[in-house]
Structures are given as C-alpha cells and as structure tokens.
Amino acid sequence: MTTIIKRISTNDAATGKVWLVGAGPGDAELLTLKAYRILQNADVWLVDDLISEDILALAPTHARIVPVGKRGGCPSTAQSFILRLMARYARTGLQVARVKGGDPFIFGRGGEELAWLAEQGIAAEAVGGMTAGLAAASALGLPLTHRAIARGVVFVTAHTADGAAPDWRALAQSGLTLVCYMGMSRNEQLQQDMLQAGFAGDLPVAVVERVTCRNERSLFTTLRAMSADISAAGLGSPALLIIGQAVTHRVQARAHAECAAQGMPDAMTVQAACL
Predict the structure, then answer these.
(1) How many Å apart are CA 259 and CA 275, to the nearest integer?
(2) Residue 264 is a catalytic residue
(3) Where is each Tetrapyrrole methylase domain found (predicted)?
(4) Please, what are the domains in the chain?
C-alpha cells in the first residue's frame, strides 16, 4: 500500500496543479486508490454540490473545502467563477482537487475545464471515477448489457443548455439500454417524447435516487407508468433512469429468488405474485 498511496510529486508540489477528481456516485468505498491519494494530498477541494458526506469526511485537516455547487434548477456557482478559482489557487503553488460527482468526463464538464486550464498554461490532470449509471447497475444487480437482450448501452442527458433532445426515434429502434441522467425534473416530457418516438409503453424502467448513498431508493416500472409512479413514490433528484429490456432481466431474477424462498416453484408465477 505504501507504494500505491504515495505523495504528489515534487514538481507538482512546487508549481501547483489542478486535479479533476471523479469522486464516484457517493459511496466512499467506490473511490479509486488514485483519487483517494490525490484528495489526501490536496491543499484545496473545490467540491460539487452532489459530493456525499462520506466523501467529505475523508478530507484531511489541512485541506480547505470550497463548495462550488451546480445543479439544474437550483442556485449554482457560475462556471466562469469556478475556472478562475482553480487557476488562482494553482498559480499560488497549491494542489487543487476539483472534486466531481461520478466521472469528470461523463456529463461533468471535465473536457471543457481541462481544455481551459491548458489554454491558461496550468498543469492539470483528470482522475477517473465511477459514473452513477455503472454504479446503479452494480448496486441493483442489473446488467446494462446482456446477451440476446441488450448488445450495448447509451448514456444520455435530458438536460442540455440549448434544450436539444437526443434522437429518440433512432434510439427507439436500437434495442440498446438507455441510462438517462438529469431527467427527473422533466420526466413527464421525457416519457411523452419517448412514447411518441416509438418506444414501447411496456418497456421496463428502473429509477434510482441517490445511487449508492445511504438513502438510496429505487423504483421498477414501465415507460407508460413511469411519471405517475415517480410521483406516487415521491422520488426526486438526484436520480437516473435506466430504460430497456435488460431491466426485466434483473426484475425477473430478483422475483424468482424471492418466490423460491417462499416455496413457490413456478417461475411463471413470480411476477404476478411477488412484483
């Protein structure tokens, strides 16, 4: 372990550097070893709004914690201010951890920030993290790809600056599993757009709120019933949607196990009796 968890290099410490650290979905045990090392040695943490308390609890006593939250529909720190703040700290020789939920390069603006820092002549490096879509699949035992069911997966966002939407019609014909980020605030419109584009109303959907956190909640439904069920369950952001036939595989496997434990021998009885 002493070989892996090493200090930041002498050159980095002398000149200052920005690290775009993917902190994963919330469970501190899902941090990579490299992310943990960088966080332990950083002088400043610039922290996204969705970083969990478990991650924040790992901050060393010498580190300054600076909240720079950004959430759709909520008061947010301006991106231009975050960029200037990273540059200011790095130019004073500090090690700056820009702590991002999930992975910096999956709906995390990591590419924009890394390019801007390069233009400013500031040393920077990205440290990958587990994105919420992958974490949700593992947490729920839900395969995003599965032989003969789903041969691929697409990560999409329902929230864009220009209001553009994915090509739902093309995705409806693809047979791929969809992992939709930032879709909760407009789930009714999302449902309507997908149904109009040709997605089947009985297409299975998993809704996962606060993935891997202590207060994680999940809901299994269909595209046709999605919005009503989300409302009835009181689910909200942050959450993601997993849409596709692969979701059925997880639900059937879980129901079979539950009914087997209850002494119900027929797998065909599972969905009616246990779901």
Answers:
(1) 10
(2) no
(3) 17-225
(4) 10-130 (3.40.1010.10), 133-268 (3.30.950.10)
Active-site residue, from 27, 48, 86, 226: 48
**150's tokens:** 């789903």
Could you write out the DSSP letters of every residue in 152-217? -EEEEES--TT-----HHHHHTT--EEEEES-GGGHHHHHHHHHHHT--TT-EEEEEESTTSTT-E
Residue 12 Cα to chain centre, angstroms: 29
- Cα(52)–Cα(213) distance, integer angstroms: 7
Q: Which of 34, 70, 193, 229 is catalytic?
A: 70
Q: Which of 217, 21, 272, 260 is nearest to 128 (CA)?
A: 21
pTM (2 d.p.): 0.83
Catalytic site includes residue 268: no
From the list 43, 103, 130, 182, the catalytic residue is 182
pLDDT tens for the 275 residues of the chain, in order = 444 444 555 455 458 999 999 999 999 999 999 999 999 999 999 999 989 999 999 999 999 999 998 665 566 789 999 999 999 999 999 999 999 999 999 999 999 999 999 999 999 999 999 999 999 999 999 999 999 899 999 999 987 767 788 999 999 999 999 999 999 999 999 999 999 999 999 999 999 999 999 999 999 999 999 999 999 999 999 999 999 999 988 765 555 555 555 554 433 222 322 33
Q: Which of 120, 175, 166, 117 is nearest to 144 (CA)?
A: 175
Cα-flanking dihedrals φ and ψ of residue 46, to 5°? Answer: -100, 110
**Does 43 participate in catalysis according to the annotation?**
no
In this structure, which amino acid lies at residue 228?
Answer: A
How far apart, in Å, do the first and last CA atoms of the chain sit? 45
